[in-house]
Amino acid sequence: MSSTAAAITGAVVFGWLGMVVGISFIEAPLKFRAPGITIPLGLGIGRLVFRALNTVEAVLAVTALLAVFLGGAPAAVLGLTIAVAAILLVQVALVRPPLSRRTDRALAGEELPRSRAHFGYVGLEVGKVVCLLILGVLVVSL
């Protein structure tokens, strides 16, 4: 893998990792513990934050994919990059739509139990973090 492609991929991957950890595992759970934050307010904020996060993640995924494809990355790096992009695609295309519909219902005042789709999203986030961490370590060790 060229040194330029490795540098770009490493920067993208570790930036992406930091965003996911900061938002998904720090901001999101803590938001609901803040004084005065109601469930509808927290859901409204979360919807905006995750829409923005997923948009930035899509840009980072495309950038990483281009860098590894054009930079002659080894198979492990290429495979992990594709895996991370696929996880993001599953989250955005398959898991977020039901969560968005559920948020709409909650914002309309309906009392709802915790969603299984939410647990699926969190599980995918954990998988994405693991893949990004391994990918970052691989890229910087090239």
UniProtKB/TrEMBL annotation:
Membrane spanning residue stretches: 6-27, 48-70, 76-95, 119-140
Keywords per UniProt: Membrane, Transmembrane, Transmembrane helix
Protein name: Transmembrane protein
Species, as recorded: Saccharomonospora marina XMU15
